[in-house]
Amino acid sequence: MDSTILMFLVQDGVVNGAVYALLGVALVLVFTVTRVVFIPQGAFVAYGGLTMAALEAGRTPGTAWLLLVMGVVAAGMELLRRWGTSPPRVMARILAVDIGVPCGLLAVSLWLPGHGLGQWANILLTFALVIPIGPVLYRIAFQPLADASVLVLFIVAVGIDLTMTGLGLVFFGPEGYRTEVFSAVSFSVGPLNISAQSIWIVAMAAMLLGGLFVFFERTLLGKALRASAVNRRGARLVGIPTSLSGRTAFGLAAFIGCLSGLLIAPVTTIYFDTGFMVGLKGLIGAIIGGLISYPVTAVAALVVGLLEAFSSFEASAFKEVIIFTVIIPVLLWRSLTRPHIEDEE
Amino acid sequence: MSRLAKPSIAAAALCLIFPLVPVVPEFWVTLMNYIGLAALVAMGLVMLTGVGGMTSFGQAAFAGFAAYATAVLSTAYDVSPWINLLIGLALSGGVALAIGCITVRLSGHYLPLGTMAWGISFYYLFGNLQVLGAHDGITGIPPLTISGHALTQGRSYYYVIWGFVLAAVVLSENLLDSRVGRAIRALRAGSVAAEAHGVNTARTKLVVFVYAALLASLSGWLYAHLQRSVNPTAFGLHAGMEYLFMAVLGGAGNVLGAVLGAAITMILKDQLQNILPRLLGTQGNFEIVVFGLCLVALLQTTREGLWPFIARFGPARPDKVISPHAAALGARSMPEKGARLLQVRDVYKNFGGLIAVNNVSFDVRAGEVVGLIGPNGAGKSTTFNLVTGLATLSGGEVTWLGERIGGKSARQISRRGIARTFQHVKLIPDMTVLENVALGAHLRGRAGVLRGMLRLDRSEEARLLREAARQLERVGLGDHMHRPAGSLALGQLRIVEIARALCLDPVLLLLDEPAAGLRHLEKQFLSRLLCRLRDEGMAVLLVEHDMDFVMGLTDKLVVLDFGQIIATGTPDEVRSDPKVLEAYLGGVA
């Protein structure tokens, strides 16, 4: 392996690792706040990339319909719960937000493709369609189970992932797609060719991680999320509703997933089931971070990216095996360093 | 099993003649065969998830291990499939043991995560190894032969599969109804209570995990010789998820629920694979959308799955028979009255900056009731946890009959005859009172997994149950022994915990607020019981807030406040101690 290949692999690893870091951090966020091991995190990556691809191809993405259906279900559950207790004004607002907004977005999605307003309009619409799926998903699937054990929530998360992947196949078909690059420029640094897209990916990831730091340290909502993560009951007692924290965490996770999808779709062909493996690699980072530490997760995810790059060069057929076997020594180390008797749930 | 005797004989008879009826289409025989294969895997998951409170997404990979083992050995090396079965079981069991050893000590979600990684690794590893035929797999696997008779027909193979299913049902039910089974069922309620009664919970978890893996590999071996070919797809992560779906659907807590879940899933899958692509106009595995939604809806509405709805029509589970002739269990010899048993010296415990227990020292002698009292947050329960090994000492020493026990595990300490109850009751609500109490006698039995499965433990089991019944009679709850623990009042549950602790045959009994929630007469009864135990030579250390109860019962009181001892002495001395009055009443009254 000469230095050119080395540099190339490092670049490749850092770009992938940056995406894994984003997803890993989102997984830690969701787990600490809601105790859900968010397996469908990767599905948002695929939804983001494929929604964008559909818009570019001039088609109405299935996610627009999905959002409407989910909105109807969520509104139905909410109205049923509030029946006879909340004033009509509140009920009307629920209908307007849960069903009205998705209807509006669907109308835009039906209209937009024929009128090509360009890449940025497509990106905005992709965000608008995919991000709300997160909080609505929380309300439908997880809020009724807020007091269930981690294990039950885990199994539910797997169920959601199966559903989202299957729906991805229904919406987008079995073919893979790539989207247009944000900018086609590339730079030459010595023998290395760095594309603007990879700079975009790394820069966005770094910015987002920094933004999350500011969010948790400086904003009230961020602090409320941290409080919920430390002690849900305590947070509830001081007036932070568990459901708000949960919806916010899921919204952030959906945003991070969607953004990751938009970032990698120009450089990687996205299939309906691509997200699963991508998400799991973020999860490996999160597991190494103990599903609790953001910085350790980010660094570990970066290492996973590098390991992937090098193993795909050295033993490409076995790269998945190598990456997923990495967690075994990590779990062993955790098991040996902190053996304890478990008594919760 | 007797509860289900009639329906299961009818079901078994139906299963027996099913493939013999010539009008039954081949399709249904094939479907039944695959249901049987899936049921075996799902049964392991029921034991793991529904009963033991753990879960795995890697069961399909365990099946794959055995399937590939027999595929390779029987095609390339001509080894008999029956020998391959043993090899496959050993391989899968070994891998399960390794994965289990790594994850059982970690929080609950690391096992499913670990098995997920294992499932993916398995798929890509076997899909890329040329020796194993890569993604095409291995074909031309010979059929299973029984005394020279090759089972090439689905109708004859049917009996092999369902014979194994039947055996697995019986062995699993037997296992759950044994000493080890009680320990397995106790896992779901957390490890603390089980460990405090001598159960090695990490080992118990490992036993269930390996058992589940063995059932999966049995299924994989059968699959290989039914299909006569193997490829990695059938053993990937999605297959693993499907098996979990079956277990959750059928009834996470019941062995027969696995068969039900497997049957519904396989039939549903077959139907959906016909209907959905036609509905949507394209090809694809759309049934996973339905499975995923079902899983979410199911866990939101009933965590018990569908089996309870069917079991409702069957006869109720008969009460356990307590054999009056079962020999009494061997009992410990009690130390001489007045002998110094427990010595607590300068015990110190801090949680970060909070000092919970600060240099506390006291003794407990045989035949003595010692009360540990003090306002809320004084460090009483923490002191209990330090003595029983549930919390680790930050300083000081605890000695038992001259032996240092500070730093020993709860399990090791329980073995020395120190039993306890908990401030927050730790019983398994869906187990009967009798079985909950019998868990306390865990250390007084020997029977392991195999003896339990093969019903060779019956005489010991009768003795354990008789002891549990005896202790329940002793605490006055004999009439409630066959009810589920969850149906009793809180005060009664505290007494059940005392019976469970007594089953350990303790020398020292630690009771954390035993009288809380009891009515007046019940308190008097408890008081008399504790006096009787004291007269038999047992030592009792209790935390209690009811001062009438404490003052009338104890020989000695230790008063804690803010983690420190502020007074020690007889009830009368303590009652007039100005420091105690200050702590309780905020000044001399």
Structure notes:
The complex is a heterodimer of chains A (345) and B (589). Chain A has 15 helices and two strands. Chain A has 345 residues and is an all-alpha fold. Chain A has one domain (3-174, 198-337). A two-stranded antiparallel ribbon of chain A has the order 1-2. In chain A, a hairpin with a 2-residue loop joins strand 1 and strand 2 (192-195). In chain A, helix 2 (41-56) packs antiparallel against helix 12 (274-288), helix 5 (119-130) packs antiparallel against helix 11 (242-264) and helix 6 packs across helix 11. Chain B folds into three domains: 2-311, ABC transporter involved in vitamin B12 uptake, BtuC, CATH 1.10.3470; 335-417 and 506-589, 3-Layer(aba) Sandwich (Rossmann fold), CATH 3.40.50.300; 431-503, no CATH class. In chain B, strands 10-11-12-7-13-14 form a six-stranded mixed β-sheet, with helices on both faces. A four-stranded antiparallel β-sheet of chain B has the order 6-5-8-9, with helices on one face. In chain B, helix 20 links the parallel strand 11 (508-512) and strand 12 (539-543). The termini of chain B are far apart. Chain B has 23 helices and 14 strands. The longest helix of chain B is centred in the middle third of the chain and has 27 residues, at 201-227.
Annotate the secondary structure layout:
The complex is a heterodimer of chains A (345) and B (589).
Chain A: H1 3-34, H2 41-56, H3 62-82, H4 88-111, H5 119-130, H6 133-142, H7 150-172, E1 186-189, E2 192-195, H8 196-218, H9 220-230, H10 232-237, H11 242-264, H12 274-288, H13 294-314, H14 319-325, H15 327-337
Antiparallel strand pairs in A: 1-2
Helix pairs in contact in A: 1-8, 1-9, 1-11, 1-12, 1-13, 2-5, 2-7, 2-11, 2-12, 3-4, 3-6, 5-11, 6-11, 8-9, 8-11, 9-11, 12-13, 13-14
Chain B: H1 5-17, H2 26-51, H3 59-76, H4 81-103, H5 110-128, E1 138-139, E2 145-146, E3 149-150, H6 154-176, H7 179-186, H8 191-196, H9 201-227, E4 229-230, H10 237-251, H11 255-280, H12 287-301, H13 307-311, E5 340-351, E6 354-365, E7 369-373, H14 380-387, E8 395-400, E9 403-404, H15 410-415, E10 418-420, H16 433-439, H17 449-453, H18 458-474, H19 490-503, E11 508-512, H20 520-535, E12 539-543, H21 547-553, E13 556-561, E14 564-569, H22 571-575, H23 578-585
Helix pairs in contact in B: 2-6, 2-9, 2-10, 2-11, 3-4, 3-5, 3-9, 4-9, 6-9, 7-16, 10-11, 10-12, 16-18, 16-19, 18-19
